[in-house]
Design a protein that fits this description.
The chain is mainly alpha-helical. It has one domain: MFS general substrate transporter like domains (Growth Hormone, Chain: A, Up-down Bundle). Helix content is 81%, strand content 0%. It contains 17 helices and no strands. Helix 1 packs across helix 11 and helix 7 packs antiparallel against helix 8. The two termini are 33 Å apart.
């Protein structure tokens, strides 16, 4: 393990970094993927014909806010060595927003929408910041491996939060309680576990960056000027740029699956809340296995081949889910999605680290976050519109959304990692 780490980096520090993936995965697993999304559609929006579109539009608004701020936050973090301070602020915001979701009751869409927007904004911003620590912790040839450790632990964190919620849901349903009773408590459980599990990160993760000269005197000007320079010199990083475009497309499909999994399970496959939670619980196990296995594999066969393999798995998954008539076929499709999800997310993050110049890692991870959030608008909105316009045909919606994986696979073929790495090592003054 030590040979995979950068000089002065300890195993405890890498564990503390990975624990943030463990901590924040509870939010995306419980709120975005497994429980609150279906609650939003069925309870807060009352199963209206436009309910799924309302959910995707709410997510789109939060991701649009992240897109507007991510590059600036990245530039600010680099100039002022403030990644850890900003990470603390976003963590507090997400934990508080998640706890506040417990206040949402039947028909209270007016409350659900702003709380989802705020909590998801803080989650996404924190995700970008924690990713920017990766190149400081791992050696260049081990970025995939170390990234895989984080994603694997992250899925275990999702399991912990979802398992705790599942235990409470079973207890509540045994006493005749409905979703309006047990979902708010699930939000409090998720918020509490997020706060608790993130403590090692803030105790042991170090801020190695050094504030740059004159940054304190021209805060906004320096940040915007640095961002403008990154965009102006983007031609030096053509392989990074192409991969970011590729990421927009294949992540559009992934983000649609993440944010609509429970809705598809309940609306198209007629799963109960408990069945849906159990399904997502098992999928998190396969996702952890996929992230860990492919994290090691990508350092052997290369990042591009690894991502291409996962995109083929995604295409197969979409076809299986679209054609599934019974629970067994859908379970198979869902677990393929789990394997592909952990692998493709981990591999993508590692490749960004490999193609990023050292002096601008915060900004380039901010740009990576921007592309992921753009895809998180594009994919779910496509699904929401398709389901609304087809009068609730969720099978057609997932098939349409699956086309993004095909486009992403085609774009991936033009990325030259060796050339992109040389450009990153040259850097930008």
């Amino acid at each position: 393990m030590k040979r995979s780490l950068a000089p002065t980096v300890t195993r405890r520090e890498v564990w503390a970094w990975a624990m943030y993936d463990f901590a924040n995965s509870g939010y995306t697993t419980v709120v975005i993927t497994a429980i609150f999304n279906a609650y939003f559609v069925a309870v807060a929006a009352g199963n209206a014909p436009w309910a799924t579109f309302a959910w995707t539009a709410t997510l789109a608004l939060s991701y649009a806010l992240i897109m507007l701020t991510a590059p600036l936050l990245g530039a600010y973090a680099d100039l002022h060595a403030a990644k850890k301070k900003l990470l603390l602020l976003t963590t507090i915001g997400c934990v508080a927003g998640t706890a506040a979701l417990a206040l949402v009751g039947p028909g209270q869409l007016w409350l659900a929408v702003p709380l989802v927007v705020l909590s998801n904004f803080f989650y996404g911003s924190g995700e970008n910041l924690i990713a920017a620590f990766l190149p400081e912790l791992a050696r260049g040839k081990a970025l995939g491996k170390v990234s895989g450790w984080g994603w694997s632990l992250g899925y275990l964190g999702g399991l912990a939060s979802l398992g705790a919620c599942l235990a409470y849901v079973d207890w509540a349903q045994a006493r005749g309680q409905g979703a309006a009773d047990f979902v708010p408590v699930a939000m409090l459980i998720t918020a509490g576990l997020f706060a608790l599990a993130s403590l090692p990160t803030f105790a042991y993760l170090k801020e190695r960056a050094v504030p740059q000269a004159h940054a304190r005197h021209r805060l906004a000007r320096e940040a915007f000027a640095r961002l403008a320079a990154t965009l102006r010199h983007a031609g030096l990083y053509r392989d990074l740029r192409r991969f970011l475009v590729c990421t927009v497309f294949y992540q559009a499909g992934i983000q649609a699956v993440i944010s609509l999994a429970a809705i598809y399970a309940q609306q198209a496959m007629h799963f109960s809340t408990r069945d849906t939670i159990l399904l997502i619980f098992v999928v998190n196990i396969t996702a952890a296995v996929g992230a860990f296995f492919f994290g090691h594999l990508q350092d052997r066969i290369g990042h591009i081949r690894t991502i291409a393999l996962t995109l083929l798995l995604w295409i197969v998954m979409v076809l299986l889910a679209w054609s599934a008539e019974g629970a067994a076929m859908f379970w198979l499709a869902a677990n393929l999605a789990g394997i592909a999800m952990g692998a493709s997310q981990s591999a993508g993050r590692a490749l960004i680290g490999l193609l990023s110049p050292a002096a601008r890692r915060g900004e380039f991870f901010g740009l990576w976050g921007l592309t992921v959030k753009l895809s998180a608008i594009l994919g779910p909105i496509t699904y929401g519109l398709a389901s609304w316009l087809s009068q609730g045909n969720h099978r057609l919606a997932i098939l349409v959304t699956g086309s993004y994986f095909v486009v992403g696979l085609a774009l991936l073929g033009g990325v030259n990692v060796a050339r992109g790495r040389r450009a990153a090592l040259r850097g930008v003054s």
